[in-house]
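Support reply, case 0932

Customer input (verbatim):
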Amino acid sequence: MSPSLSPRQPRIKKPAVAKGGKNDEARKQALRPIGVFDSGVGGLTVAAALRDLLPGENIFYIGDTARVPYGGKSQQTIERYAVEITGLLLAENAKMIVVACNSASALAIPRLEEMLKIPVIGVIMPGAKAAISATRNKRIGVIGTRATIYSRAYERAIQALNPDVEVISQPCPMLVPLIEEGWLDDPITDQVVRRYLEKLVREDIDTLVLGCTHYPLLTEAIAKFVGPDIKLVDSARNCAVAVKELLKKEKIAAPADNLGKLQVALTDKSDGFLRIAEHALSLQIGDVQLRTVQNAAHA
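Our regenerated output:
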C-alpha cells in the first residue's frame, strides 16, 4: 500500500483538529469583554485602573448618564437601574460584570448575583480590605453618596474584617454633580470638600475611603484638605486588583499576547465626558456610543 494512503494518517490528524478547536473556543471566550458600568463618568476610574493593570483585557464600559446620580435613589430604583444596564452589557457578550458604582455595589449586587451565571464584582469589599491594611489607629472615615453611606455597606464590610475598627461615615451628595460638570480644580469644589470633610478630620481618622468611584477624580483636592497624615483609599485601583484575581480563578483571563481595547457607551450625551476622561485619567477613547436602556437582563 502506498504510504500516502496509510490508515494511520487520519487517526493522527483528528486529535490535533479537536484539540485546536477547544483551544480556539477557550481563546474566544477569554477575549469577551469585561463589562463595567457606573451611573456616569466616575466608573472610568475603574476602567482606567483595569487598563493599567490588565492591558490585554477588552473592556466595555457603560455610563448611565441619562440617570446620574444613583446616590439619591431608593434601593428598588438602584436595583432596577443595575439590572437594566447589566442587560446592555450582556448584549455585548460580557464575560464578567464589574459594578463600578458604590451605590449599586452596596444595594444591587445580591440581585445581580442571583440572576446572572457570569461573575459579578463590586468595589466595596476591595476598598474595605485596603482600608483595613492602611489604618494604624483603627479609625477609618468613609465618604460616599447618601445611598452608599445610609446602606452601611462599608461599615459592615470593614467591621466584618476587623470588628475593633471604628468607622465614621459622611455622605457627600454634591461631589458627583461637581465632578460630572468637570469642576475638578475649582474654588467652589474646594469649599464643598472642606464643608463635608472638616468633621471627619476632627474625628482623628488616619484613613479615608473614597467610597464613590467618582471621588478619585478629586484626589488632589481631597488630599490638599485632609493633609499627608490621612491615607486615601482609592476603591477603583483595589477593585482592579480583585478583578485580576477573579479572572485567574475563573480561568477567563485574556491571553497574554492580546492587545485589549476600551469601548465606551453612554445612555445620554455628556459634554464634559471626553474631556474628563482624557485629561484627568489619560484614557484614549474613540467614538462614544449611545445605548437605550432596556428593562430586562438575562444570564
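We compared this against your earlier run and they match. Two observations from our side: Residues 124-235 form a domain with the Rossmann fold fold (CATH 3.40.50.1860). DSSP finds 13 helices and ten strands in the chain. Please reopen the case if you see a mismatch on your end.
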